[in-house]
Specification:
This protein is an alpha+beta fold. It has two helices and eight strands; from the N terminus they run H-E-E-E-H-E-E-E-E-E.
Length: about 190
Protein backbone atom coordinates (compact mmCIF):
# COMPACT_ATOMS: atom_id res chain seq x y z
CA UNK A 1 0.00 0.00 0.00
CA UNK A 2 1.45 3.34 -0.92
CA UNK A 3 2.10 6.12 1.60
CA UNK A 4 -0.69 8.44 0.42
CA UNK A 5 -3.30 5.69 0.68
CA UNK A 6 -2.07 4.75 4.19
CA UNK A 7 -2.26 8.42 5.22
CA UNK A 8 -5.83 8.76 3.88
CA UNK A 9 -6.95 5.57 5.66
CA UNK A 10 -5.29 6.60 8.94
CA UNK A 11 -6.77 10.11 8.76
CA UNK A 12 -10.25 8.74 7.99
CA UNK A 13 -10.05 6.27 10.87
CA UNK A 14 -8.83 8.99 13.27
CA UNK A 15 -11.67 11.35 12.26
CA UNK A 16 -14.25 8.59 12.63
CA UNK A 17 -13.00 7.69 16.13
CA UNK A 18 -12.89 11.37 17.12
CA UNK A 19 -16.48 11.88 15.96
CA UNK A 20 -17.72 8.87 17.90
CA UNK A 21 -15.81 9.90 21.02
CA UNK A 22 -17.09 13.49 21.05
CA UNK A 23 -20.62 12.29 20.27
CA UNK A 24 -20.60 10.41 23.58
CA UNK A 25 -19.69 13.38 25.77
CA UNK A 26 -22.19 15.82 27.22
CA UNK A 27 -21.57 18.94 29.30
CA UNK A 28 -22.91 22.14 30.81
CA UNK A 29 -21.48 25.29 32.35
CA UNK A 30 -24.67 26.34 34.12
CA UNK A 31 -25.75 23.41 36.23
CA UNK A 32 -27.28 24.06 39.62
CA UNK A 33 -26.29 22.97 43.12
CA UNK A 34 -28.23 24.09 46.16
CA UNK A 35 -28.06 23.23 49.83
CA UNK A 36 -30.48 23.49 52.71
CA UNK A 37 -30.18 23.34 56.47
CA UNK A 38 -32.90 23.91 59.03
CA UNK A 39 -32.87 24.05 62.80
CA UNK A 40 -35.47 25.48 65.20
CA UNK A 41 -33.30 28.63 65.32
CA UNK A 42 -32.63 29.23 61.61
CA UNK A 43 -33.16 28.11 58.04
CA UNK A 44 -30.13 28.35 55.75
CA UNK A 45 -30.23 27.86 52.01
CA UNK A 46 -28.09 28.84 49.04
CA UNK A 47 -27.78 28.06 45.38
CA UNK A 48 -25.09 28.13 42.75
CA UNK A 49 -26.06 28.29 39.06
CA UNK A 50 -22.51 28.26 37.68
CA UNK A 51 -21.71 24.57 37.95
CA UNK A 52 -19.55 22.92 35.29
CA UNK A 53 -20.35 19.28 34.64
CA UNK A 54 -19.49 16.63 32.05
CA UNK A 55 -20.67 13.09 31.39
CA UNK A 56 -19.17 10.51 29.05
CA UNK A 57 -22.02 8.12 28.25
CA UNK A 58 -19.60 5.50 26.87
CA UNK A 59 -17.56 5.15 30.08
CA UNK A 60 -19.92 6.57 32.72
CA UNK A 61 -17.31 9.13 33.82
CA UNK A 62 -19.14 12.03 35.50
CA UNK A 63 -17.54 15.20 36.88
CA UNK A 64 -18.64 18.43 38.53
CA UNK A 65 -16.78 21.57 39.50
CA UNK A 66 -18.15 24.67 41.19
CA UNK A 67 -16.67 27.80 42.69
CA UNK A 68 -17.60 28.19 46.35
CA UNK A 69 -18.06 31.96 45.95
CA UNK A 70 -20.78 31.20 43.39
CA UNK A 71 -23.25 30.25 46.14
CA UNK A 72 -25.84 32.97 46.65
CA UNK A 73 -27.79 33.44 49.88
CA UNK A 74 -30.95 35.44 50.61
CA UNK A 75 -28.98 37.44 53.21
CA UNK A 76 -25.65 39.10 52.37
CA UNK A 77 -24.33 38.51 55.90
CA UNK A 78 -24.93 34.75 55.60
CA UNK A 79 -23.01 34.72 52.33
CA UNK A 80 -20.11 36.61 53.92
CA UNK A 81 -19.94 34.23 56.91
CA UNK A 82 -20.23 31.20 54.61
CA UNK A 83 -17.26 32.30 52.48
CA UNK A 84 -15.01 33.74 55.18
CA UNK A 85 -15.69 31.75 58.34
CA UNK A 86 -17.01 28.33 57.32
CA UNK A 87 -15.88 27.45 53.80
CA UNK A 88 -12.72 29.59 53.77
CA UNK A 89 -13.24 30.12 50.05
CA UNK A 90 -9.95 32.02 49.63
CA UNK A 91 -8.10 28.89 50.77
CA UNK A 92 -10.52 26.35 49.23
CA UNK A 93 -12.00 28.12 46.17
CA UNK A 94 -13.79 25.18 44.55
CA UNK A 95 -15.56 21.92 45.15
CA UNK A 96 -15.31 18.97 42.77
CA UNK A 97 -16.85 15.59 42.20
CA UNK A 98 -15.20 12.88 40.08
CA UNK A 99 -17.00 9.61 39.68
CA UNK A 100 -18.79 7.08 37.52
CA UNK A 101 -22.34 6.06 36.81
CA UNK A 102 -22.22 2.58 38.35
CA UNK A 103 -25.40 1.27 36.71
CA UNK A 104 -24.56 2.55 33.21
CA UNK A 105 -25.98 -0.58 31.55
CA UNK A 106 -29.45 0.27 32.94
CA UNK A 107 -29.61 3.63 31.14
CA UNK A 108 -30.45 3.90 27.44
CA UNK A 109 -29.04 7.29 26.47
CA UNK A 110 -30.36 6.89 22.93
CA UNK A 111 -34.02 6.55 24.01
CA UNK A 112 -36.14 9.28 25.59
CA UNK A 113 -37.24 8.37 29.10
CA UNK A 114 -36.42 8.68 32.78
CA UNK A 115 -33.87 6.31 34.27
CA UNK A 116 -32.70 5.69 37.83
CA UNK A 117 -28.97 6.28 38.22
CA UNK A 118 -26.34 5.54 40.84
CA UNK A 119 -23.19 7.63 40.78
CA UNK A 120 -20.19 6.69 42.91
CA UNK A 121 -17.14 8.88 43.31
CA UNK A 122 -15.01 11.31 45.27
CA UNK A 123 -16.51 14.56 46.56
CA UNK A 124 -14.00 17.28 47.47
CA UNK A 125 -15.25 20.02 49.79
CA UNK A 126 -13.15 22.32 51.98
CA UNK A 127 -9.95 20.44 51.09
CA UNK A 128 -11.35 17.07 52.21
CA UNK A 129 -12.22 14.25 49.81
CA UNK A 130 -14.86 11.68 50.77
CA UNK A 131 -16.23 8.72 48.85
CA UNK A 132 -19.97 9.10 48.16
CA UNK A 133 -22.68 7.10 46.45
CA UNK A 134 -25.62 9.12 45.19
CA UNK A 135 -28.94 7.96 43.76
CA UNK A 136 -30.63 10.18 41.22
CA UNK A 137 -32.20 10.19 37.78
CA UNK A 138 -31.24 10.88 34.20
CA UNK A 139 -34.02 11.98 31.90
CA UNK A 140 -33.25 11.75 28.20
CA UNK A 141 -35.32 14.26 26.30
CA UNK A 142 -34.92 16.01 22.94
CA UNK A 143 -31.21 15.18 22.69
CA UNK A 144 -30.35 16.48 26.17
CA UNK A 145 -29.64 14.64 29.41
CA UNK A 146 -31.30 16.07 32.52
CA UNK A 147 -29.65 14.87 35.71
CA UNK A 148 -31.13 15.31 39.18
CA UNK A 149 -30.04 14.07 42.59
CA UNK A 150 -30.63 14.82 46.26
CA UNK A 151 -28.38 13.63 49.07
CA UNK A 152 -27.06 14.65 52.50
CA UNK A 153 -23.57 15.37 53.75
CA UNK A 154 -22.32 15.84 57.30
CA UNK A 155 -20.50 19.12 57.93
CA UNK A 156 -18.00 17.43 60.27
CA UNK A 157 -16.95 15.00 57.50
CA UNK A 158 -15.43 17.93 55.61
CA UNK A 159 -13.73 19.61 58.60
CA UNK A 160 -16.02 22.64 58.43
CA UNK A 161 -15.85 24.28 61.85
CA UNK A 162 -18.94 25.96 63.27
CA UNK A 163 -18.29 28.50 66.05
CA UNK A 164 -19.91 27.64 69.40
CA UNK A 165 -21.89 30.89 69.31
CA UNK A 166 -23.93 29.70 66.29
CA UNK A 167 -23.66 25.90 66.56
CA UNK A 168 -27.41 25.61 67.37
CA UNK A 169 -28.30 27.63 64.25
CA UNK A 170 -26.74 25.21 61.76
CA UNK A 171 -27.77 21.61 61.23
CA UNK A 172 -25.05 18.94 61.33
CA UNK A 173 -26.38 17.62 58.02
CA UNK A 174 -26.89 19.57 54.79
CA UNK A 175 -29.31 18.51 52.08
CA UNK A 176 -27.65 18.91 48.69
CA UNK A 177 -29.62 19.09 45.42
CA UNK A 178 -27.94 18.83 42.04
CA UNK A 179 -29.62 19.59 38.73
CA UNK A 180 -27.98 19.71 35.30
CA UNK A 181 -29.02 19.84 31.67
CA UNK A 182 -26.20 18.26 29.69
CA UNK A 183 -25.90 18.94 25.97
CA UNK A 184 -23.89 16.93 23.47
CA UNK A 185 -20.38 18.28 22.89
CA UNK A 186 -19.69 19.19 19.32
CA UNK A 187 -16.34 19.67 17.70
CA UNK A 188 -15.66 22.56 15.37
CA UNK A 189 -14.14 21.37 12.14
Amino acid sequence: MNTILKYILFTSLFLAISSVTSAQKYSTKNGRISFYSETPAEKIEAQNNQVNSALDIATGDFVFKTLIRGFEFPKALMQEHFNENYMESEKYPSSTFKGKVSNLKDINFSKDGKYNAIVDGDLLIHGVTKRVSVKGTFEIKAGSIFGDAKFNILIKDYNIKIPNTVVNNISESLEIKVSVELKKLTTDK
